[in-house]
Amino acid sequence: MKIGDILVRNGDLSPEQVEALLRDQASRPGKRLGELAVEREWLPDSTVLKALAEQFHLDFMETVDPEHFDEALIRTLSVDWARSHQMLPIRVDGTVSAAIANTDELSALDDAQFRDVFSGSPIKRIGRDRFIRNVLIAIGNSGDAGL
Question: Left (φ > 0), alpha (ψ -120 to 50) or beta: where does 94 sit?
Fold first, then answer.
């Protein structure tokens, strides 16, 4: 389901608002519908992020408590690697959860890019789908209206 359809179904936007956003999006390549809705102050970023999580069938977390960070996991990655990817692994419990600063770039990775970026890291083992789930959680935690 498209994010515009989700936002209409949830009562967050009218069909006319979605049409206006789609017209605006067509003239502004690279802009996302949710980003445009936030720019127009039609929606708060948290509403868009919750709709994105719903679109990808993922849980949405408002915040991550520091007590959830796994120090042993953090020590497995080099500081240079974490800085270059603007990522801090949080925990492993069947999947790796991570706090990510540059979510726009990471959420757009296709399978080949994912394998290339995370070659040699524990993140690669979780696979792209689980990683994208965690990226969306990080977007929700960022508080950045532009995401």
Answer: left
